[in-house]
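Final report, Chapter 2: Outcomes

The project's central promise was a pipeline that accepts a single protein chain and returns its three-dimensional structure in a standardized token representation, suitable for archiving and comparison. That pipeline is now operational. To close this chapter, we reproduce one record exactly as it appears in the project archive, with the input sequence first and the structure output second.
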Amino acid sequence: MDLSKLKPAEGSLHRNKRIARGEGSGHGDTATRGHKGAKSRSGYKSKMGFEGGQMPIYRRLPKFGFKNINRVEYRPVNLEDLVKVAEELNLTTITIEDMRHSGLADKKSLIKVLGSAELSKKIDVEANAFSKSAIKAIETLGGNAKKIQG
């Protein structure tokens, strides 16, 4: 193989379009910009979302909903998960730190306990919020559901 005889593949190269170089180029006169209108003029710059004067899509589509800036986001934790943590760590009182340590929630999240299961033993639980069914399930066995401000 002789490196001096290498050539590009057939059809891989093409000449650039030479715009506005006279009538003989085939791209003279209007220089491929068409006739009249903003896009044919020098200095044309389209605004973001501009659709040539027709009503833009962001104004045609309806807007829905409402985003409450005061919404408080909780990390849900089920009672059955708390029972597992209590059995693993042999606890009677489960705090937020215990839940975070066991991987039920991360460091910054607020925790809400949900009553999706039946408890088998008395436990005291500290969390940022409780569902009514969770409070009922905890207190029926003599446990205590203590709310902590987050």
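Archive annotation: DSSP finds four helices and six strands in the chain.
This record, like all others produced under the grant, will remain available to the consortium after the project formally closes.
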